[in-house]
From TrEMBL, chains A, B:
InterPro entries: HTH_HxlR, WH-like_DNA-bd_sf, WH_DNA-bd_sf. It holds the Pfam family HxlR. Keywords: DNA-binding, Transcription, Transcription regulation. This is Transcriptional regulator, HxlR family. Residues 8-107 form the HTH hxlR-type domain. It comes from Sedimentitalea nanhaiensis. PROSITE patterns: HTH_HXLR. GO terms for molecular function: DNA binding. It comes from the Bacteria.
Length: 123, 123
DNA sequence: CGGCATCCTATTAGATACTG
DNA sequence: CAGTATCTAATAGGATGCCG
């Protein structure tokens, strides 16, 4: 439906990060190191299996995470950040800093900003 | 539906940027300077009146854009980036750089990564 | 355990029309 | 011109259940 005027080179990245939960996942992988599916799921409370798989697949396609499958029974699958994933961490941190600054300026005080598709909200 | 474990300080920022069209709007305002509603609308092709107003209101609430209304007839309303808005521009640029780098590494080759709520796609 | 496939609903955002 | 209001279509994503 909508268009994409070629402008905005960072859109592709944003589109990547934008996905629901995406940052949480990256954050956890970056912070806690490589994790197995189940652990990851528990580390991102509220996410559904479907979502988690979908996001991981997407991040994989983007070369942001790797996936290692142990063909044991039961199977054990581990995910981790690729170097490229760490690039992103940088951006996230940059945002984190600004967020921090804004917070002390009292930006996020009231109700949420009513962004858009943001599954990371109120309980 | 979902939760928000307090982690991920940058989530608030992302939630802000995540909204559809949001980056485009900021980008235009940052690139073209303050603009009137109509011009803005034409600068972000495909966006609906409703969306544009909604996004602008949201960005206003976040203190990212200012709004100046001239009570003439017909009315003339102008929007521009606040200093805080320029902070964001920095983040966007950072992302842009990475995007650029990745692009030369051929990340975004195939179909889109199927992010999430991203109205800024094909067409 | 990891993760598809299915189903089903809540939300979202486009189109349209009308007002100050 | 700059919105608001309404109505609707599309879809994202949660829940569930089964399979390797």
């Amino acid at each position: 439906m909508p268009r994409t005027p070629p402008q905005c080179p960072m859109d592709s990245i944003l589109r990547l990060l934008m996905g629901p939960w995406t940052t949480h996942i990256i954050w956890v992988l970056s912070d806690q190191g490589p994790q197995r599916f189940g652990v990851l799921k528990r580390a991102v409370p509220g996410i559904s299996t479907r979502m988690l798989t979908e996001r991981l697949r997407m991040l994989q396609r983007a070369g942001v995470v790797w996936r290692e499958q142990a063909e044991t029974i039961p199977p054990a699958v581990t995910y981790g950040l690729t170097p490229r994933g760490n690039d992103l961490r940088g951006v996230l941190d940059a945002m984190g800093e600004i967020a921090e600054r804004w917070k002390t300026e009292g930006v996020f005080e009231g109700d949420d900003l009513g962004g858009a598709a943001s599954p990371n909200s109120r309980l």
